[in-house]
Write a structure and sequence with these properties.
A alpha/beta (406); B mainly alpha (278); C mainly alpha (297); A: 406 residues; alpha/beta; D-Maltodextrin-Binding Protein, domain 2; 18 helices; C: 297 residues; mainly alpha; 13 helices; 1% strand
Chain lengths: 406, 278, 297
């Protein structure tokens, strides 16, 4: 059997399939759209109804796909694309962009964006972050979150300290607040924890360029970060495998004084702690340099779609001011449009402010096919081994350097 | 076997250990039930609060009215029952053949069925997805049922072969000498005797299919979505809907437990071994 | 090949009995399995299907040099022996107890299947939550009763993570053994016990000389099937630790999954899976040879 069988099989099937779907958009075009919302009680039905009323020729078939830590959604999407059974459009992440590009699965939407009125309502730096490696635009930004620092104002006041602005202040605060059942910093060493590590280590001077992870500055920054758990002992003993659920639960229960997460958990935490929680941008290095993770979400149209125009109309509809607000009420993230952000009331203001104040230093991970593997495998295993003393912090950085530039 | 122990001794030797095992078996489930009736604010407190202060059925109400859970339960039931029926229908004759006939390639075929079971399904899933797509079976009951037969059939064949082996061959041979056809012999003599085994294999397939996630996630879409996939939707990227999840988990175990309560009598009544020997 | 009483059947009879099972299995499993074997000989990235190159056995050579493979193999051995062994012992004890007569037996038999009736996702999440360092019920109970002084990070300590997950899986799977063995116990003729009782045998002797030999075949099959299932099971690990901390809970199927889906290195993942299959095959082959010798008598 040939190795490209997957594709050949599916190509044969794709040739047989068009009977089912009219090639010309005269008759109603159907757009299959895949999405994931955090709360299954929320459905996009109202948005779909509104869109179909405005665009009589188009039917939207919205399908919720289990997120499964990102893995299930990705697997399902890639399997469907390989089998030639993919949706017309779907919610996608920047970290998958290089892989989708390698598969030639995406449709460039530059020309369609050119004629779209909503274009200027999305800030330029967001367009820039979302641009493809070849300079074309494949992603239409939909929503975002930014990692910031949650802290307990009541405990800070008791201890007579201010929310930290620098790494040193952060360490001092964490030390001051660690006592008894309370840990100063609820470090996330489990799945997805690179977003806790990045602000200190990338912010502290590391980079994804060649040699960027093993520079003197980068190694020192990582030693300092691992030291929070191993030397300063300001983190819970469970830090190596704690993921967002554990850090948020512990913070809600009053067992940690600071965690790093984003606006997506704000309402839940406020539900437990009320006024006793606030947020500031992540601390910066002594030289004023800083970095935080820009958690992106976009829509993309797939190259294999038979209804690209209709699919674009739908995703553009979702990124237009008021519709985008409605969508974000369902997802719990932040509106992507400038006009939408001004009107946004979905989260208490202090968390929206902290998010916006973080934007100047917010960045994404490299647009590289190995990035998802870095997030899901390389970072967690090496971080956890370093946190448990099985390897040195420097070995961890060498492993990351090897992964990207080996 | 007659039990000549006194009541107290039986309590100490049987009922008390059974009780201990049940506590072990049920404790996590009970914790889940307790969680499912706690209001949102009482979840994840420190120190841990064991009993809900204001017990509520809100999560169950939301689960039924605001999500597609009830429909997903029905889908799961159809798929699990379908997998059990299909699995047993093709496995009973095959197991009978393996148990009663000696033919060339028998050992190889039996091993072959096991080997299939040994292959990690996670790696079969993408080729299987392509195959189902080409057969136009994606998002159909039959597609998921066929997917589940990958583990159901090998398992049932092996399990049933060993139950068939426990029935003496003289018995069906005697019946055939008396003029019964082979099909009659199977239906009237062998199957009733092997009923506990058939029920066990059926339960196994039903439960495994009921709990299966990966095939269901890949091969089903919105129209035949199972409960396991629906539950996964409660685990979002940034939040876990603990209330909905535990309410769903509580409900999901009930049909299987009730089913088992109904069929467990068959395990007892199916075979009175005296009939075998006399 | 044919004993005296069997000469009445035509040589094609077994084929008819086997045909449906063979047809379905071949259609659904064989094609994907052969594709996967073929993939294991390639450097195949799911996102670059056109760049796949045939590399012969080089994936397998690389695996033998891969430190993580050996770590995972060791964990798999502990995992299989520990989980299957304890599930079996607990299940056997449960089955023997549930085979005694007491008035709430039917009820107990139904309740004992509850752990088995729950999907792995739920089990993984519930146990993770119970093990939680900060808000978990297990630490709370142990601290309250004075068994430990301070909470334990069950899933974050390399020495405790694997045993902790194994406990969850033992809990999930022992009802399978209990039910299967219980069904086997029903097939033992009561006359055997009555005769033994007349001969003055005690309970322990009856267990050793009547009960266990009578259900040996069922036990062996159940053990075999369960070994295969446990060897391949990874969803609970995936939910609870994802293989961490570090490589502390990496087993072979988990590592294969991680390489195939996180890294999308399908060739390498398929090769890892094949090695696991080959190792299991050895075990099965030994078993089948022994079992068929018994059956062919």
């Amino acid at each position: 059997m040939e190795r490209r069988d997957f594709l050949k099989l599916s190509a044969a099937a794709a040739l047989a399939a068009p009977l089912a779907r009219p090639a010309i958009a005269q008759t109603p075009a159907t757009v299959r759209w895949w999405y994931h919302f955090d709360n299954p009680q929320n459905t996009p039905a109202a948005l779909v109804a509104k869109f179909e009323a405005e665009n009589p020729g188009i039917k939207i078939q919205a399908e919720a796909i289990p997120w499964g830590g990102g893995n299930d959604y990705q697997t399902r999407l890639f399997a469907a694309l390989v089998a030639g059974n993919g949706p017309d459009a779907a919610m996608v992440r920047l970290s998958w962009a290089a892989r989708l590009a390698a598969m030639k699965a995406l449709e460039p939407i530059d020309s369609m964006i050119g004629g779209w009125a909503g274009r200027s309502d999305i800030p330029d730096n967001i367009w820039k972050i979302n641009k493809g490696a070849d300079g074309k635009q494949y992603y239409l930004p939909l929503q975002y979150v930014v990692i910031y620092l949650y802290y307990r104002p009541d405990l800070f006041q008791q201890a007579g300290i201010q929310p930290p602005k620098t790494f040193d202040e952060f360490l001092a605060a964490a030390k001051a607040l660690t006592k008894g059942d309370m840990a100063g910093f609820g470090m996330r060493g489990g799945a997805g924890g690179f977003d806790n590590w990045g602000p200190f280590v990338i912010g502290g001077g590391a980079s994804f360029e060649k040699g960027g992870m093993v520079s003197e500055k980068a190694l020192a920054a990582n030693r300092w970060y691992v030291g929070l758990a191993r030397d300063a002992k300001v983190t819970p003993a469970s830090a190596p495998t704690d993921s967002f659920r554990q850090i948020v639960d512990a913070f809600k229960a009053g067992r940690t004084a600071m965690i790093m997460h984003h606006v997506g958990s704000a309402n839940e935490i406020v539900g437990a702690l009320g006024d006793k929680v606030s947020a500031v941008p992540v601390p910066r290095a002594a030289d004023g340099r800083g970095w935080t993770y820009f958690g992106d979400e976009s829509n993309a149209v797939f190259a294999a779609s038979k209804a690209k125009e209709a699919a674009f109309k739908w995703i553009a509809f979702l990124s237009t001011a008021d519709n985008n607000i409605e969508l974000n009420k369902l997802t719990g993230q932040l509106p992507i449009t400038t006009s939408g952000a001004a009107k946004w009331t979905g989260h208490p203001k202090r968390f929206v402010d902290a998010s916006q104040a973080s934007l100047p230093i917010a960045g994404s991970l490299p647009d590289h096919p190995k990035t998802p593997d870095f997030i899901a495998r390389i970072w967690p295993t090496n971080m956890q081994r370093a946190l448990n003393g099985e390897i040195s912090p420097d070995d961890m950085m060498k492993a990351i350097e090897q992964h990207f530039n080996g | 076997m007659k039990d000549r122990r006194t009541k107290t001794r039986r309590f100490l030797e049987v009922e008390l250990p059974v009780l201990a095992i049940l506590v072990f078996a049920l404790a996590p489930y009970i914790w889940m039930v307790l969680t499912s009736i706690k209001p949102q604010a009482e979840l994840s407190l420190w120190p841990v609060r064991y009993l809900p202060e204001n017990a509520t059925l809100d999560h169950y109400r939301e689960l039924i009215s605001r999500t597609s859970f009830a429909g997903n339960l029905l889908n799961s039931f159809i798929i699990a029952a379908g997998a059990a029926i299909l699995g047993l229908a093709v496995s009973i004759p095959a197991a009978y053949a393996f148990s009663r006939f000696r033919f060339r390639g028998r050992r190889m075929l039996m091993t072959g069925f096991l080997v299939i079971n040994m292959f990690p399904v996670v790696l079969l899933i993408i080729p299987l997805f392509v195959l189902m797509k080409n057969l136009a079976l994606l998002d159909t009951f039959l597609g998921v049922i066929l997917g589940h037969s990958t583990f159901a059939i090998p398992f049932a064949i092996w399990m049933l072969t060993s139950y068939f082996n426990a029935i003496p061959k003289d018995l069906d041979e005697a019946a055939m000498i008396d003029g019964a056809t082979r099909v009659q012999t199977i239906r009237l003599i062998v199957l009733p005797l092997v009923a506990p085994g058939v029920v066990t294999a059926g339960i196994y397939i039903f439960i495994t299919s009921w709990n299966e996630y990966l095939f269901a996630m890949m091969l089903s879409g919105q129209s035949v979505r199972t409960v396991t996939v629906a539950l996964q939707l409660f685990i979002g990227e940034f939040t876990i809907q603990w209330g909905l999840l535990t309410a769903g988990g509580t409900l999901i175990a009930l049909p299987v437990t009730i089913l088992f309560l109904l069929v467990q009598r068959r395990l007892v009544g199916g075979l009175t071994a005296g009939a075998v020997k006399s | 090949m044919i004993t005296s009483a069997h000469n009445s059947f035509s040589r094609w009879t077994p084929a008819w009995f086997l045909a449906p099972a063979l047809a379905i299995t071949a259609a659904i499993v064989l094609v994907p399995a052969v594709q996967t074997i073929w993939l294991s000989l390639h450097d195949y990235l799911l996102y670059e299907p056109d760049a796949a190159t045939f590399i012969g056995l080089r994936n397998f050579a690389a695996i033998l040099q891969d430190e993580v493979f050996w770590i995972s193999l060791g964990h798999s051995a502990i995992w299989i022996v520990g989980v299957v062994g304890l599930q079996f012992l607990l299940g056997l004890g449960t089955a023997l107890l549930l085979n005694q007569s007491f008035w709430w037996r039917g009820f107990a038999r139904a309740l004992v299947v509850v752990p088995w009736a729950l999907p792995s996702v739920i089990i993984g999440l519930m146990w993770t939550w119970m093990y939680d360092f900060n808000v978990g019920v297990l630490n709370d109970m142990l601290v309250r009763t004075g068994i430990i002084d301070a909470p334990i990070a069950w899933l974050a300590r390399p020495d405790l993570a694997l045993p902790s997950i194994m406990a969850a899986l033992i809990w999930q799977g022992f009802p399978f053994f209990a039910i299967t063995i219980l069904a086997g116990l029903q097939t033992i003729p009561s006359e055997l016990y009555e005769a033994a009782e007349i001969d003055g045998a005690n309970r322990g002797q009856m267990l050793r000389h009547i009960t266990l030999p009578s259900i040996a075949d069922v036990i062996a099959t159940a053990l075999l099937l369960r070994t295969i299932w446990v060897a391949n099971s990874l969803d609970v690990i995936l939910v609870m630790t994802g293989g961490g901390p570090g490589y502390a809970t990496h087993t072979l199927p988990l590592y294969s999954f991680v390489r195939a889906y996180n890294s999308m290195e399908f060739g390498y993942g398929a090769a890892l899976a094949l090695i696991l299959t080959l190792l299991l095959l050895t075990v099965v082959w030994l078993y089948v040879r022994r079992a068929s010798r018994d059956l062919d008598r």
